[in-house]
Write a structure and sequence with these properties.
The protein is α/β, with parallel strands linked by helices. It has 14 helices and 22 strands. Helix 1 (15-26) packs parallel to helix 14 (403-421). The protein binds flavin-adenine dinucleotide (FAD). Flavin-adenine dinucleotide binds next to helix 1, strand 2, strand 16 and helix 14.
């Protein structure tokens, strides 16, 4: 019989936490979810006001046709919108736009870049060194930079090739995505239906042992359970914002040192009307922003919303500016790319979502640093008594650092906790 009222306390109500709590509850255990924010979803955050239709501030796509969240969305009865970015993908580098850009002779050096990343062998090296050895320069370098560092979020010299291979994030470059029409946040909310989720419950300390775990709120309130699942983002774990007592073992700190929380921000713009080609899905450029996309593509009659997706050092640079100054940078960039459209004269509203400054994530999502291969598995390992680990930073079986990765880790940690308690 359980010693505590609570069998398992789950820290965080993002995709990993809601998945874990759902599975624990379905297994007949009493689970409580504690969440610092006043909403469910974590890095899934949908704005239902900005455009009158749902627009994503964080995760946007269900990536690939193999995502474990596709059947989940079907079970939740959620309508999906298929989007194949490659269909309306435009790239402009050095003022030359695709398809003319694809005739650039430097591109021959790229070869089968994605396949070669997937097959990478040998001692770890940075993605920058990997490209240098291949003799990649010019437009090919800018294109490879897009392909290798838009998803890992680290800059080329920070991203390790072994981790890039293991994370399989370059598979996302092959396209096939879906958006959730009613908003991505419907998915974790559906998982959390009927669960005991305590919002505004900020964990300050986790006391862990083999026999149980106590989580301590920032106001001193405590919940003691027979086990816990921690889904705190890598950025939060690395910041020491939550104290672990006893201190986490060296294996966990080594794992955290091998990972980094990448910087990403979205600046959403609503315009009076579109100034971009009708079939544009994604626009890859080489200015202060590397990627723009049409957030409401494929929704007839929807407002003209464009998302500036800013990552890596560019995101860190825009993060220190005011929201207005950062928006001005993007608008000047758009004026450069669409001189006839005069985007800056058409803007009606904008909103910056800076995940680097969010105290509940301290970055957008994780990547494996040079020399950090194996860190996700070490963080995921069930080697801290009754405290189990989930969250996208612990993903090893799927493409890492995406929503379906978080979902799979929640399932894994829940089954570990069930096994521990039985
Ligand atoms: C801008 C952006 C775009 C993205 N785009 C995509 C995409 O298109 N497709 C995709 O699949 N993935 C995307 N991702 C990645 C995806 O959002 C994440 O991989 C996934 O949502 C992580 O889920 P999680 O449960 O592991 O973490 P989280 O969602 O971060 O959940 C952790 C929870 O812990 C809570 N928490 C933090 N500190 C405390 C504390 N002290 N006490 C209690 N609770 C705390 C947080 O508030 C949060 O709710 C994107 C992420 C960002 C930021």
């Amino acid at each position: 019989m359980a010693r505590n009222d609570v069998d398992v306390v789950v820290i965080g109500a993002g995709m990993a936490g809601t998945t874990a709590a759902r599975d624990l509850t379905d297994a007949g255990l009493r689970a409580v979810v504690v969440e610092s924010q006043d909403r469910i979803g974590g890095r899934i955050s949908t704005d239902h006001e900005f455009a009158g239709v749902p627009v994503e501030q964080g995760a946007e796509f269900i990536h690939t046709d193999k995502a474990e969240t596709l059947p989940l969305a079907a079970a939740a009865g959620l309508e999906l919108l298929f989007c194949e970015p490659a269909a309306g993908y435009v790239m402009e580098l050095g003022g030359i736009r695709s398809p003319e850009l694809y005739a650039d002779p430097s591109l021959a050096r790229l070869g089968n870049l994605l396949d070669d990343v997937a097959a990478f062998e040998g001692p770890d090296r940075s993605a920058a060194e990997f490209l240098e050895v291949r003799g990649v320069t010019g437009a090919a370098w800018a294109m490879a930079d897009q392909m290798l560092s838009i998803h890992p979020l680290g800059d080329l010299h920070e991203v390790g090739m072994q981790g890039l291979r293991d994370d399989r994030v370059v598979e996302l470059e092959r396209g096939i995505d879906h958006r959730v029409v009613a908003g991505y946040d419907e998915l974790p909310k559906w998982l959390a239906r009927g669960l005991d989720v305590r919002l505004g419950w900020r964990v300050a300390e986790v006391r862990w042992a083999a026999g149980g775990v106590t989580v301590v709120r920032d106001d001193g309130e405590e919940i003691t359970a027979n086990a816990a699942v921690c889904t705190l983002p890598i950025g939060v774990l690395k910041s020491n914002a939550v104290r672990f007592t006893p201190e986490l073992p060296a294996t966990k700190w080594r794992a955290l040192n091998g990972l980094e929380m990448g910087a990403a921000m979205k600046i959403l713009f609503r315009f009076d009307e579109p100034f971009w080609p009708e079939d544009l899905t994604m626009l890859a450029v080489d200015g202060p922003v590397r990627l723009y996309w049409t957030s409401l593509y494929g929704r007839p009659g929807a407002p003209a919303v464009l998302c500036a997706y800013v990552t890596g050092f560019r995101a860190r640079a825009l993060s220190v500016l005011s929201e207005e100054a950062a928006a001005r940078v993007c608008l000047a960039d758009l004026d450069r790319v669409f001189p006839e459209g005069k985007p800056s004269a058409r803007v009606q509203a904008y909103q910056r979502i800076d995940w680097l400054k969010n105290p509940d994530t301290r970055g957008a999502y994780s990547f494996v640093r040079l020399g950090g291969a194996g860190s996700r598995a070490a963080l995921a390992a069930a080697d801290t008594g009754a405290l189990f680990w989930a969250g996208d930073g612990t993903a090893t079986d799927t493409i890492a650092a995406v929503v379906h990765a978080a979902h799979v880790t929640g399932k894994r940690a829940a089954s570990e906790a069930v096994a521990h308690l039985s």
